[in-house]
Design a protein that fits this description.
This protein is α+β, with helices and mostly antiparallel strands and 244 residues long. It has three helices and nine strands. The longest helix has 62 residues.
Amino acid sequence: MKINIACPSTGMQKIIEIDDEKRLQNLYDRRMAQEVDGAVLGDEFEGYVLRVSGGNDKQGFPMRQGVLTNTRVSLLCKKGHKAYRQRRNGERKRKAVRGSIVGHDIAVLNLVVTQIGDKEIEGLTNGSVPRRLGPKRANNIRKLFNLTKDDDVRKYVIHRQFTNKKGVSIRKAPKIQRLVTPLVLQRKRARKAAMLNSILKNKDEAAAYKKVVAQRLAEKRETRRSLISKRRSSRKSAKVAAGK
C-alpha cells in the first residue's frame, strides 16, 4: 500500500510504500478523519499524529466520507454530491465510490500530519515550500496582514512578477473579491433607490387603480338606480292610465 503523507505547515508531502501486513493491520478499519499514531508507520514517525483524509482503491475509486463500509458501493448522485458532475439539469446518476473505512483493497491512503514529532523527516518536515498563491478575499487579506478597515487592501495583495516570451515584465495578481469601493457603494445606493422608487410607483398605481374601480362601481350603481326609477315611473303611469 502506498501512503501519501502531507504536512500543511511546511507545504511538503511524501509518498512511502509499506508491504508489511503487520504494520498495515494498524490502519485497517480506520475511518476517514480519524487520527492515527505515527509510530505504526515506522520509528521515524515517532511522536507524529496523522489524520486519515482519504484514499483510492486499486481501480481508482475514491473514498467518500459518510459511507460507513470498507467496500465499494453504487450511490445515486445528483448536483452538489462529491465525485459527480452534472451534465444536464436535474440529472441523477449512479456512481461507484469507496466507503470511508480503510480496507485491504486500498491502493493509496492519504494521511495529513496534525502533530509534528521531535525528529525531522526528510522531504516532509525538514524544509518548507512557500505558497505561490495568496488569499483573494478582502477580509482574508486583512486577516493575513493584520490590517484595519482603513488600510488599502490593494497594496497588500500577493502578486508575482515574471517575464513573458516577448520579454515584457508582467505583474500578475488576483482580482480582490468583496472589496468595498466607492463604485460598489454607488451601485448599492442606486439599487436601493430603484427599489424604493418601484415601491412608491406600485403604491401610486394601486391607489389609482382603486380610484378607477370605485368610480366604475359608482357609475354602475347610478345607471342601475336610474334604470329602476325609470321602470317604477313607467309602471305608475301604466297604473294611472289603467285606472282612468
